[in-house]
Each structure stands twice: as structure tokens, then as C-alpha cells.
Amino acid sequence: MKHNPRYILKHLSVRVPWHDSGWNGSVCNNPKANGACLILKNCALNRDDENEQAHAGQLLKDLDEENYPVCIGERATFMAPFAIHKTLEHPYAESSPTTHGHLKPTRIQFPAFSAAAVPYHWMLKENAKDKTALFDLNFDDQREPKLDWAVNGGDHWVQEINNQKALLNCFFEHFQEETSLVFFYAKQVPFVEESGRVLVGAGKINKIIPSEAYEGSNSRFGAAYWEHMVLHSIRKDGKKGFVLPYHAALEYQTEHPEFDVAEIAVVVPHDKRFEFSYAAEHVSNDSAIRVLLECIKSLERAAELGIGENHQASIQWIHNEIAALEKLRGAYPGMGSALCAFGIEKGHFVAAEIINQLKDDKDNPWLLFEKALDNPKGILSDAVAALIPFNSKKLYQRLKEKATPTRIKFLHLLSRFDLSIEQATFLFVEEEREKLGIQRNDADYLANPYLIYEDLRHTLTPVALTTIDLGLYLKNPPSDILPDNLIYDDPFEIHRIRALTIQQLEWAALQGHTLLPRKEIIKQIRDLSISPACAINSDYYELAEECFAGSIVLEEMKDGERAYQLQRFTQTREIISQKIIDRINGKRLTLEADWATLLNTALDPFTEGKPDETELKARSEKATALKEIAESRFSVLIGPAGTGKTTLLTILAGQEEVENKGVLLLAPTGKARVRMEEIAKNIEVTAKTIAQFLSGYGRYNGEIQQYVFSNQYCEGIYETVILDEASMLTEEMLATTIDCLKGVKRFILVGDHRQLPPIGAGRPFVDIIHHLRPEGIENAFPRVGKGYAELTIKRRQGGSKREDLQLAEWFSGEAMEPGADSIFNHILKNPNSKYLRMEKWENESEFEKVFEKVLIDELGMENIEDVAKFNQELGSPDGRYFNFKEAAKKAESWQILSPVREKVFGVKAMNRKIHKLFREDKVKYARDRFGKIPAPIGLEEIVYGDKVINIINSYRDDVWPKNDSLEYVANGEIGMVIGQFKTAKMTFKGKPRNTEIEFTSQKGYKYTFKSWEFKEEGNNPLELAYALTVHKAQGSEFGKVFLIIPNPCFLLTREMLYTSLTRQRDKVIMLYQGSSFDIKALASPLKSDALRRITNLFVKPELIDIEGHYLEKNLIHQASDGKMLRSKSELMIYQRLIDKKIPVLYEKALTIKEVEKLPDFTIENEETGNIYYWEHCGMLHDAEYKRRWEEKYNWYRENKILPFDEGGGENGILIITEDKPYQVEDGSIRGAVSIIEIDEIIKKVFNK
User: Fold this and answer.
1) Phi, psi for residue 412 in degrees, rounded to 5
2) Cβ atoms within 10 A of the Cβ of 1205, count?
3) CA 1165 to centroid of chain Cα atoms
4) SS3 letters for 816-832?
């Protein structure tokens, strides 16, 4: 096919599925393990796992067509060195015989090194009309047939051959063989967690073979298959294209487990995702350049590590292609969009015809356009000249004649950038700009074009900074470049440095940081794949800081080093810190109540017999905490699950004085909101998600899911505001919330700060706790101070004896009680106890067997085919039906959790496995035209009886009953598909069409979801929820939890493990890969997400660099030699030992008779041969902690390790120190070991 000069030349993107053999024309080596390809509808619905597994690794040329994998239709063989023949059958030949019945199966060839490109977006009827108007195509809707099954619509695809060819020809005539590039990408790969667009390879388009009519097409009606065969230039030698070495990188990772394959992944820029969508799309010159620059970086890193081969040849090819692309793009790639924004509806046609007429790349198309306005003859064809309205000509000329033609200059500026029509319109049309809240004039943009990036970065149509770079830094620009010869050649232009700094700070915010040290930003910018490169240093920043005002705030680290912060995070910091400081230092509230009696009244019905000593201590702790949160204007109530936080809040909210003056319960998720509503039973309070609440005051933008400030306030309605699951709050969420609420007397933040930090910038709950926590509070009981209340005694069934909670404590980041290491010996001796079960697996095939065995055991099934029992464990009373107001009650009785979405042990594969095992019959029944349940919806084929999770915050009015319904479903709410099930009483014709969900968070209400809401390229509202990521599970609670721990896992953090180990009421079943002792390493501060975040909410950051990671020094206990310890007391002991030059090892494993213990400190005297084991005991106020220490002490004695005061033992000398309790004026107990005491022991034992 030839390029049509009417069209601007484009490049091609082609979507392929992930393939574990490199798209070489074979079946995957391990098809069942390939979950990444299931993101594609065809693969998800039609992959035959058993058949593919039977032919794993075989070449397609050696197989009969009936054994071809389904992915051949998804271009999974684009690197096959041989041709493949495949028979195409029109999908409507059977379903609409009247119109398509005469179309016959048509056998076609897929040539070697080719891909069957199908531009699905263009072939949708709704888009065909736009394309027809845009490109003036010979498309006639009257030619389209009326399908047999589409009486009421639903036939979305263009069918008639002339219409099809009009669209297909237009699409493919944008390419020029031997010039246009082709980019292959995958929507999902196994080494990048978030689904996106990951580039696989790139080459030249050698040839395009157009599609033809199906056999049997006739003059009455014909149809073409859509597959155009695109032959490409990519070969193994890398000289004319390349495939990125992902497969080699996966092999490299097996030998180097510390290497993350995502390091070399090339992810398509987010603002260009549409160009890499819908299976085949047009790619602009600028997008091609941007992607290729990233490929250079990837290939250079691979070459550095010795991954793959022929990279230098590929890199040289890329450089050559970028040079050609820079010439192709010209100086005005956005001229068509700019003309459309100006008001010329088909301005891209005008621009194409003018640009294609230019004899030299130095010629100026705007000058030719201006000539054409006076006289189009010889410049524009009559058809294109007619596209320019008379008043558009007149307006252009009038604006140009102005003394200061700013509007025209701005139009010329926009044409310099690769903008969409929508982006150009938002920028050029002042009224559209105002709608976006942009207060900017044309002259501002002319003075600093990077403002285009800055202003649109938080909209639905962002413009990347590199787009501006490409328009301003032109190589060999023409001498009359418009506007005003505006060309940049200095890579250190200050507006560019400002924009780059904003970009890096925005990326940092996504990682959780609210500011960055300047030296870190410098390092990042120097490493960017941008052209020209920006080898910036601190001296250039001194210049650039002159233009930072309004967007970037100059901050400092604790050591005086310069840091930069986005203006909005300075605002959030000031609001949060000032409100808290003022409230903590303000007048105390008075609320007369006998908290101890109120607690006894609330708890006695749940206490068997008389309260024991631990229960009495727990009630004392609760009463003190309750008094503090009642009287403080701002407070935190913290503690793990089972300590009674909900009980305290219920009592407080139920006090007449509190209830009558308004109580607002807010939570970041729907699940947490429901927990808040439990507090609200029989109490007049309001419970909402934060997004729901702020939306009413213009402070939450649902389109881009951003929390923003506004001039609307909630005033004088609520005097008490409780924010639950506060660990999930970003700084923006918290700041916009407390800023919105006026007239509040009592703010309470509730949660467990040891859980996952928020998805977004900051860790405000952790920072607030650290700010409010009184000095020495870790050695106090109860742990209550000014605005600070911590509950420590677990009273959930089993209390602190529970093995699952003991294991969770290891990953809390808190000081450990001295006998805490007993849990690991317990695991070895008794891997399946009442509350904790440990199951080991080594590889993926073993994992599947172990998982099935565990599922059968824990759900009480007879075997893996026991569907009835499986259903009963999900709320079906008889194993078949899932009834409204019944099923949702048991939906959370068990839950699978995994840290990852990909691979055999990831969420996607686990959900598919469960679905295949227990819902296959339901899916078949739902597909049957006589079935009494709706057809399956979405790629996962969600069907009656499925457990699902809602993943988009949305108002939904299709709910029954309407009365008192929220008409809102929040992200994270879990439910069961309970309908529609057609009964004899229902009189409508045909199958039910609506899928009805009852959410566990809104029992007694069913929400309707429609099939059209689920699209292959869109954000679908529901996903299967048998397995969830740990992030999705935060804020939820389940009966049993099946926790999968792969090793290695780069996403696994200390907080993630702690969170997942505290989601269960009854039991956790951990399926771990490798050694259980490897899991202990995750307790290190280096594995903490929260500690790696850089924030300045109350204090200037003080960072320490440990193994390439920055950690906040104020939040860890680090000795002068770099060793990190768990508590302040341990730090004091360790530091004094190294100060005295005594060689000491921290938590070195001691194994005797196959029992492993972890003494706090081990000291070996090489001269005398004596070994000392120093154990430091914190306050043993918990009876169970005390019992475990006594067990450990006795173990030492039994193994002839005796105290120093007894002369030591045959196997070692034991030193014991304690935090000794003493009572202070307020009645609380404090205690800590002193430096003096430590020094006395060292002198006595070591004579130092």
C-alpha cells in the first residue's frame, strides 16, 4: 500500500500478547503460567489451557490448525521465521445467516516476520462517523446490514465491504513502506505490575498486504476480513530493528535474584497511551522519538549487565531512525491541530496538503497557508480550500495585522508541538482554558512554553514535558521559524529546569515523597532519556531558582542542604501542622463521664466470668485513652486490630453531648466506612467516604481522582470528626478534609500506623504520631499522652497468645518483647496450629499443588471438584443458589491475598484458577440462550455466584431498594453476584440482562451493572475478588486469609506483610516460597515503604543512605556504625558496647538441638573463649509476653547458659537488663534502662 499525500505520515503500533518464547511461532513453553496474555479478550475467553499445555513449545508449522493457540489471532507470532496459514471465519456467518450466511471460511497466509494489524477503534460504528467527517471518506451508513440478532441495536462494528475498505484504506494509507516504523507492545507483561503499554520491539514497515473480501462475498453483500499483513524489518542481528531482551532478562534474574526485570522495561508514556491502544493505531513522529529514546536507555542497561545480544547494532539503528524522524516531523507537527483549534474544522487536511507540498524542510508552511488565504490556487485543491470558512480567513488576517499579534503568535507556537485537537483547543480557546481553571494569557505561554506542560499536567489531556522539548529544541531549524524565531539551544534554559524539577517532584509524589533533596533531583534529571540531555548541577539551579515562584518552594534538609517541594505540598504541610500544633496547645475540652463504668457496661456482656488481670489492665488502658480523645481538640487513637478502638469510639460518639452536636465519621474506603457505620448503630451520626464527603464541597475531582482545595466549607455541622484507617490518608486527603471542616471541636485520627502507607504522597499518620508521641512512651503503661492514645493489649479471641499475631508483630517495626523469637521455633515444630498454618513451596508447579491441598483442607471440601462445599463457604445455603440478603454475609469468610497481580501466584492467575475450577458450569449455563442467569460480563466472565470487588468510586442510581440507599459504591467494596436469576414469577422475555451485586458493605441493597460498562480498553468497574492484592484488602477483615509470599518479590514490604497478617479474624494460612527464615529479613527498616518516604510535615528531613536507600533517621534507631536496632533501649546498650570497643553482634542466630533463638546481643571474647548473650527485657506488663520470656530464660538454663551473677554456664554467660517500671504523678507506669546502669554492667562483666 502507498502513502496518501492527503494524510500526515504516521507510524504504526501493534498490540501483541506476552509470549514466553519470544513470539517465535511456537506455543508458549508454559501456557498455563502465562497470565499476562489474559488481559486480551480473545485470550481470556477462548484460551484452551489443557490443549496448549499438551503442545507446549511446539512450532505452529508442525501443528494442525485445530491445535493452534488462540493467541495467533492476537499477533503472537510476529517474529516467526516461517509463514503460517489460518482459516478466518466471519463471526456473524452463524449468528446472522440472513446477512452473512453466504460468507465462507477464508484461508489466509500470515507471512514470515509479519503481524496482522487490525485498527479496531476505527472499525467501531460510533467512531466511523467521526473518521468519515474528519477524513471525508466514502462511508454510507445506509449500506450497513440489519443483523438478525440486532433488532434493538447492539451491532457496533462496521460490516459492509465498501464502508470497511473506506476506513481501512484511510488508516493504512497514513503509512509509507520502508519509511514508517512499527512498534510492537504488550498491554501486560509478567514483570511490570500495573497494566499499561510495555514496548516489546520496533522496526520498519517493509510492506503492507491489504485485506480482501471473505470468500462468498457477492454484489448483494460483501465483507472483508480486517487483518492487513504488516511485514517488518526486525531480525535477530538488530541491524534494522530490535526486540527488547525481556526473555533474556528473566533468565538473568534466576541467577541474580536481586535484579528486577522492570529496570529495563520500556513503558509507553501515559499521555501517549491512546496511540498504543485498540490493537493497531497511528503513532506520531514525536511519540516515536520519545519511545525510541527510552529504548536506548533500556538496551544500554541490558548491555551493561550482559543481558541479550547485538545491542550496539540496535542502538545505532535507533539513532539513525531518530535523526530521520526529526526531519520527518518538521518544525510544525501540530499545525493541523492548531488550525482546528482556530476554528477550521478540518484543519488537519489543510495542514497536510500544505506540508506535503513543501519542497524543502526549511520552507515555512504558515507562510504558504497565508498565501493560500489570499489565493489558494496552486497551493490547495478546491476541495480543501473550501474547508476554510470565510470568517476564519478574515479573523486570521485581522489578528495578524494587530500591532502585537499575540493570538496568532500563540497559534504558531501551538503548531510547534505534537498536540491533539483537544489539547490545542483547551489551550488556544480562552473560554476552554478558564473551564480548566487555568488563569493564564497567551503572552505567558509565549514567554515560557513549558507552562503548557505545567498547566495541563493534572487534566485528562496532559501534555508531556518532552513534547515541549521536541518543539523548542530543533536541529537545523529554518531561519524564519515562527513565532519570532523562538528556538532553544541551551539545555540549561531556566524555564526548562523549572519544568523538569516539577516533573521529577510529581513522579516523586507518586512514590510517596512530598519533597526531594536537590542532589537527588540533579541525579534523576541527569539520568533522563531526554534530548538534549540536561547534565545539570547545583550552580545552574542557583540561576533557575529565580523562576521557581508559584510552583516550587525552596526548602531545606536538616543538614542545610537545599530541597525542593511542590507548592501544593507546602500548602498541605502548613494546614496540617498548624492545625495540629494549635489544637494540641489549645484549651482542653470538658466532657464529664465515668469512662471506666461506661467501658464495663459495654464489655461485660462479652466477658465470661470475672475479668482476669489482663482484661482489667486492658480496660484501664481503654479508659485512660478514652478520656484523652474526649478532651483533646486533636488526637490519634492507634492500635492493632483487636485492641478495642471501635469500642472506644462507639462509647464516645454515644455520649449525649457529643451525639447532639454532630458526629462525622469519615474513611478513605467503602469498607472502612462500613466499620464506621458499626459505631453509628443506634447513634445519630453521619458516615461517608472521604471522597464522597469532599465531592460535595468541590474538593475531590473524580475524573482525575485528585483532592483539591476550594472556597467551599462544611461549617458548624459537626463538632466531632473521626477519620478511620488514617494510615491510608495522603497529605492531600488529610489537608483538604481538615481545611474543609469548620466549627469542629474534636478531630480524632484512628488506625494502625504499622499498616501500608497511603497510595500517594506523604505518610501523615506516621508523622503525626511521631510528633505527638511523648518521649519514653514505649516504656510506659498506659501509652497515653497529650493528643496521643495507644492501645496495646489485644483482647480479640486468643489475644497475644495467637501465633498469627505474634508473627505479625515481627513486621510492626516496634520493639520486640524478649521471647518474641519463639514464634519461629513454633512454626518449625507446629506448622499448622489453630491460628497459623505455614505451607512451603519451591516453584510454580509445586505452588499449584500446595494451594489446592490447602484450599481443600481449610474450606472442608472433599476434593478440588467439590463445588457445592466451595459455594457454601461463600454464602450459598444449598451449594447452588446465592440468595439476596444471604450470600453477602459469608462473602468475606475467607480471602486469598497476594502481593502481586502477575505470575501463577498472582491475583489474576489465582482468580482465573478459582473461576475455572468452580464457575465453569455457571459460565456455560450463562452463555446458553435458555439460561436463567445473565451472560458473563467482562474479560473475567463474571457470572452468578462470583465474588467481586468494585474498583471505581461511582454514584450509581440503579439500586434496589431505593429507600435509604447510598446510591454510591466505593473503590474496594466486596460483593457477591446474586442476580438476576430468572424465576417463574418474572414475565420478561428472554434471558436476564442485568448483573446484580450485593456488597458486604451495603447488605440488603443490590446494585445493577450492565455489560456495556465492561470494555477491553476501558476501566472496568468490577474484578473477581477470590484473590486480592494486599493493598485492595486494606481496611477489610476476613475469617481466614490465604497469604501467598513469593521469594524474591520486589513489591513486598514490611508494612505489606504486617497488613496481610492482620486481616484475619480466625486464621492465616501462609504459602511461602523458600525458607521461612528468609521472611524474617522483611522486618528490616530497609524493607519499609513508610521509612523510605521523604516528608517534612513537622521537621526537616534527616536522611541516611543505607544500601542505596534513603531512610528518615528520626524514625529509626541507628548506631554510629550504621547498625539498625529495634528500640531505643537496645540502641543505648549496643552503642555503649561499641563505644567501649567490645565486639558485639546483634540478633545473631543461636541454634542448639535444632532450636533457634535470637539473643539481642552476642559477645565473643576470643582471648578467653567466653560467649556472652545479653538479653534486654522491655516492660513485661502483658502476662503472655512475660510467660514467653520465662520460657526463653528456662531454655537458656536448660542449655547451660547461665546468668553472670551465677558464674555463667558451660555454653555461655547470660546478661539480663530490664526496663524497670516506676509510677509517675499521673498514675501511669514508666520505665527505661539507664546509661549509668549499662555502663555499670559493662564495667562489672567486661572490666571496660
Assistant:
1) -65, -40
2) 12
3) 51
4) CCCCCCHHHHHHHHCCE
Residue 1204 has which C-alpha cell?
553472670
For 776-796, give one letter per residue: b (16+ CB within 10 A) or e: ebbbbbbbbbebbbbbbbbbe
The mean per-residue pLDDT over the stretch 836-865 comes to 94
* Burial status of residue 2 (CB atoms within 10 A of its CB: 0-12, 13-18, 19 or more): exposed
Under a CB-based contact definition with an 8 Å cutoff, are residues 919 and 1002 in contact?
no
Alpha helix (H) residue ranges in 137-284: 161-172, 246-255
Q: CA of 564: how far to CAs of 371, 498, 541, 1110, in Å?
A: 49, 11, 11, 16
Check if the beta carbon of residue 711 is closer than 8 Å to that of residue 679: no
pLDDT at 1181: 66
**What percentage of the chain exceeds 70 in pLDDT?**
98
Q: Do residues 976 and 873 lie in contact, with contact meaning Cβ atoms separated by under 8 Å?
A: no
Rg (CA), the chain: 33
Residue 197: all three cell numbers together: 503499554
**Euclidean distance between CA atoms 244 and 257, whole angstroms:** 20
**Closest listed residue to residue 505, CA positions, set 273, 761, 290:** 761
What does the alpha-carbon distance between residue 747 and residue 738 come to, in Å, rounded to a whole number? 9
* Dist CA 160 CA 142 (whole Å): 10
Residue with cell 478466518: 88
Measured CA angle at 1041 (ends 1038, 1046), to 5 deg = 145
Structural contact between residues 839 and 1070, judged by C-beta atoms closer than 8 angstroms: yes
Question: Which residue has cell 536506548?
Answer: 296
- Residue 1203 above 70 pLDDT? yes
The predicted structure's pLDDT at residue 1050:
86
C-alpha closest to that of 231 among 79, 10, 431, 6: 79
For 371, the 3-state DSSP assignment is helix
Confidence of residue 1096 (pLDDT cuts 50, 70, 90): very high
Query: What span, in angstroms and rounded, lies between the C-alpha atoms of 48 and 61?
Result: 19
Could you tell me how many residues make up the chain? 1248
The packing angle between helices 390-401 and 406-415, to 10°, is 110
C-alpha cell at 394: 478574515
The helix/strand/coil state of 1183 is: helix
- Strands 1201-1203, 1212-1218: pairing kind: parallel
Distance of CA 1133 to the CA centre of its chain: 41
Identify the residue whose cell numbers are 524555564.
495
Q: How many C-beta neighbours within 10 Å does residue 364 have?
A: 17
- The per-residue pLDDT for 1145 is 95
Contact partners, residue 20, CB within 8 Å, separation at least 6: 28, 29, 30, 33, 34, 247
The predicted pLDDT at position 1223 comes to 63
d(CA 775, CA 92): 74
Question: Do strands 1038-1045 and 1155-1157 pair parallel, antiparallel, or not at all (unpaired)?
Answer: unpaired
List the beta bridge partners of residue 688: 666
Q: What type of residue is 136?
A: D
State how far the alpha carbon of 1237 is from the alpha carbons of 277, 286, 568, 1142, 1162, in Å.
68, 69, 49, 17, 19
d(CA 783, CA 777): 6
